[in-house]
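User: Batch of two.

Assistant: Item 1 of 2:
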Amino acid sequence: MAPTIQRLGVLTSGGDAPGMNAAVHGVVSAALHHGIAVTGIYGGYRGLLTKEVTPLTHRDVDGILVRGGTFLRTARCPEFQTPEGVQRAAENARELGLDALVVIGGDGSFRGALELSREGILVVGIPGTIDNDIGCTDYTIGFDTAMNTAMEAIDRIRDTAYSHERCSIIEVMGRHAGYIAYHTAIATGAEAVLLPELSADFEAQVVAPLRAWKERGKRDFIIVAAEGAEGLSELPAALEAAIGIKPTYSMLGYIQRGGVPTVRDRSTAMRMGERAVSELLLGAAASVIAEREGKICALPMEKALAMKTKLSKSEIDSARVLTNA
């Protein structure tokens, strides 16, 4: 028999991602439709420990779809990473009258949610991270916006690289998975791409292709690199020594996390928010909402956390072809 849910809490945790606000909007809209009150928790798990909360109504989420970041804010919380912190967070959730909790974030946020579920709290997770590196889902909220932001920046850098006959290295986010680098390198016509999934081989991945380009008369070059690519700090010197080009280096950094969410991110986030509420009404104790083969579904949280993701061999091969790497 499904539990009775009269009030649920929602929080955003981990790195912010465009579309998190849309996910909150989806949760609030679906919950209120079913007669469930919603409590917004400020600052992620820290807010659950400090009881920094607010009621959320349609009026509170009206207009937030266009905003990047998360209006509920997010923060690191070392205390929550202890057994005592988790237990206190669960006690606070019960004191606040929360019958269930929706957590929007990445794998780390879901691990915290799983610990709360073991303390008797009904929890559903929604994947929100620009890196698209959560194994259980084909898509994470924020990924499309981040790619478009990176693409626009690289296009602008290309203009200057061409004008000054330069080689430009652009570092994008992606510590463990190179999805942003892979897609933006292809979309911007980069001459080379460096990925966390590949061991560093500058001669094969960068030097040889750029040397061939240079011999054909090309004078401007773009190299897109994921922040987790092996040996990235050594690349500028290696390039200068090998082909006599002193590259410029641009780190896009947190610019990729901000900005107006795209249709893809807003729509997916809203649908995931609605599905999260539906799962709770069905009695889900600990699950993660995912997009798999174009469909929104739910997976048990433990199973979801055990799944890993990285670029496939075929994707890496296509990157080599399309970037001449």
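Item 2 of 2:
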Amino acid sequence: MQQTTTDRNAGTREKLVATARMLLAERGIERVSMREISREAGQGNVSALQYHFGDREQLIAAVLASENLEVETRRAALLDDIDARSVGDARSFASALVRPAASMLATEAGREHLRIVAQIVNRSDIGARFEAMLEQSPSMARWRTMSASCMPDEGARLHRRFTAYQLCSVELGRRAELGARREQQLFVSHLIDLCAAILTAPISDETKELLSETKKRRSGKE
């Protein structure tokens, strides 16, 4: 059967995404050029990348989206279960954060994805990007809203949920660098414990006082 133009375009796009994912994971998102990705994917120049993705940011978004569907599905199911059982404890929410992403440790493409996410989370502009990332992930936006119930009142103002997400992403990226491993259960369980501890850690009197002072200063400027 003769291959159609649509099939060829889809095949080229998949090849570009797979190549970009591998190179971005191995060399770093700041160290790989569009030209290198095109060459490694067997394309003569960057025109194919520009045709399919437009620019570098859209390419990275496509690379991440290629592995996100299963994570979204798994996290949504865990949040549905929390809703159904009315179990709002911190470890359940931490598990819903960690386990769907940790499932990606099982495949090479998944491990590459985790390494890229860890790089993005470590960028200095991640704070400004976090809201946009949530908009692209309905399950994470839902997790962010639901998990507030298990935190101290001041927890949200201290960015507890982002800190837990950051720890989860960085640790999974570090683990992914080790390659395929037979046993992940202990690592995943301990990471869930750490994320749950971040969400529920007691807030000291000193931190409460500093929070109060910060709030007063900000109120005075408005």
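Residues 66-203 form one domain.
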